[in-house]
Amino acid sequence: MEIKKSIPNIFTLGNLYCGFLSIGYAADHQFKNAAVLVLIGMMLDSMDGRIARMLHVESQIGKELDSLADIVTFGVAPCFLVYYTILHNNGLIGFAVAGLFPLFGAYRLARFNVTPEKESSQYFTGVPITAAGGILAILTLFNKHIPSVITIVIFTALCFLMVSTIRIPSLKQVPLPKYGTIVTIFLGALLFMVNIESRGKFPYLLYVATPLYLIYISYRFIKFKRNT
Hints:
Layout: H1 2-27, H2 31-55, H3 60-85, H4 91-98, H5 100-113, H6 117-122, E1 123-125, H7 129-141, H8 148-162, E2 167-169, H9 176-198, H10 205-226
Antiparallel strand pairs: 1-2
Helix pairs in contact: 1-2, 1-3, 2-3, 2-7, 2-10, 3-5, 3-7, 5-8, 7-8, 9-10
C-alpha cells in the first residue's frame, strides 16, 4: 500500500528533476534540450494527479509536493531559458526582469492551493503556471524564427495573466482517453514543427520522452476500453 501511495509522488519528483536538469542545460547553452525538459515536466505533471485519482491515493503531501515541483520546472527553469536566450544582453536588469516570472507564478500557485477543490476542478483562475512555462519553452525551441520583442511581450503578458482573475476551463474532468488524444495531437504537431526547424535532428531527449509518454497513453486507453 505504501508503494502504491508513492507512485504519483515519483512522477511529481520526476517533474521537479526535469526542472533542475533544464536549468543546468540552459546554463550549458543547450537551449533546445532545456526547453524539451520543461515539456517533459508538463507530461509528468499531467500524469501524477490523474494517477493519484486512479489509484485513490490523493494526499495533501502530494498536492504540496506538486506545487513545489511546478515552481521549479515551470517558473524558475523557463525564466532561465528566457534570460539566457534573450535577456542576457541586458545584464543585471535582464536578470531582474527574468526573475519576475517565478514570483508571479508562485503567487498563482499559492492562490490555487487555497481555492476550494470543487471550484478548482471546474476552472482555473488565471493562466496555470504549467501552461505559462510550457509556452515559454516552446518559444525558446523556435527562438530563431520568433523576434525577441514578441517573446518579451508574451513573457510579460503571461506574468500578469497568471495572477489575473480570468477563468479558464479545467481539463481535470476530461476522461483520460480523450485527454490523451488531445495531448498526443499536440505532441505530434510539436514534433513535426521541431523536425522542420531542426532539419530532422531532434533534441535527443525527445527520443526518450515521446515514446514513454505514448506508451503510457496507449496503456491507459486499452485499459479503459477493457473496462467499458
